[in-house]
Amino acid sequence: MSNAELAVSYAALILADDGVEITADKLQALIKASNITEVEPIWCSLFAKALEGKDVKDLLLNVGSGGGAAAAPGGGAAASGGAGGAAEEKEPEKEEEKEESDEDMGFGLFD
Length: 111
Fold this sequence. Notes:
Blueprint: H1 3-18, H2 24-33, H3 41-50, H4 56-61, H5 68-84
Helix pairs in contact: 1-2, 1-3, 2-3
């Protein structure tokens, strides 16, 4: 990550922590106030558009969740099942097939 990207990232985090809307102008003002001169204005515009309408704190808290999109349909089913008084059933996990390696084929890279 370049210094420009890092500076804009930190500026966005500062704005989000203060509960201020993240805009390109506010990012530039914060970077200018910190005496960082190597940041081109395009970085501020890109970050502002990428974070527009998003809760940065929520993004940080859910970085490792990985299943955010898949959780929505299951949540609706659990809510409707809970209303009927039925116990929530857990779906069995599907095992992933192992990929064959070179060792399984009887030859190696240097044979």
